[in-house]
Predict the 3D structure of the following.
Amino acid sequence: MLIGVPKEIRPDEYRVALTPAGAEMLSQGGHDIVMERDAGLGSGFTDGFYAEAGVQLLDTAEEVWARAEMIMKVKEPINLELPHMRAGQVIFTYFHFAADDSLTRACLEAGVVAIAYETVKLSTGELPLLKPMSEVAGRMAVQEGAKYLEKPQGGLGVLLGGVPGVLPGKVLILGGGIVGTNAAKMAAGLGARVHIMDIDLERLRYLDDIMPANVQVLFSTPYAIRKQVQDADLIIGAVLIPGAKTPRLINREDLALIRPGTVIVDVAVDQGGCVETIRPTTHRDPVYVVDGVMHYGVANMPGGVPRTSTLALTNSTLPYALALAEKGWQQACFEDSALKLGLNLIQGHVICRGVAEAFGMECLDVNDFLTGSTQV
């Protein structure tokens, strides 16, 4: 298979979908790789490393898209890239379709095979390609939130860990999954008072067992959330429903309950966010204020630490990329139920139920496209 890796062009995105080590393994498997020059530079990988791994370097992204049978990316295609897509081309990346109507329709119209990192799901319920970036984002959420709590940044002027004789700051985490767990670890390590809210009692019991004494677990209801936000210093949105739009947990009117200078970091912003007033921002312009409350909505948080993030991501994506390249997408997805769940769109058809429900579209049975009963 001919695999293409264009440079990420979303603002402040420095990750790359393939490392030189991964390129070498694909090349040794007999696959050809074309890559846009300097695509790995933001993550610390120069073109020389890729050339040694057997990669053919091209001058423009347009050339990469035109030649490749499968495109590997980190973030979803943006407007400048959409015209390059073509029917039957496999695109393997994060998509988050349910929060982006225009991207969904563009990919449907182009007729691509869209395999989304975020919906690849193991039988255990684990999301192996989302997990590493969720780990990074959860830890960064506390790091970034602590920074914007400083008074010169517009925050409350609270040190999360406090000092002897002064109460530590309170961190409220909405969601006890991978993002929430990693955020809680970081916040607890700083010495903050941490409250995690979730609707899964078994998950809460698990977290109660493994977390240190300064982490409290609470069952989540709208009433309980409204009570907890009133004295929180940092609020972290960490809710995920794979492939679907994030449920709204904090409404605009709830901001009146939150103290001015409080910071909200909504890690779920790329799936629509769990805060009504959140909108995507960038690393260069990460925050804005609504009703006195600081909002941090960077949609590609792990892109701020690309060296760590690229290595963590590609450790997980490479085995799936090898399978797709070796077997083709139909056979690879037929044999691997986790990868099958990554299929969101197939040549003009919606396959992922969460995406279909988000836009009122028909959802077809993925097995029809893998067993040959439907021609694609």
Summary: The CA atoms of residues 198 and 220 lie 5 Å apart. Confidence is low (pLDDT under 50) at residues 372-376.
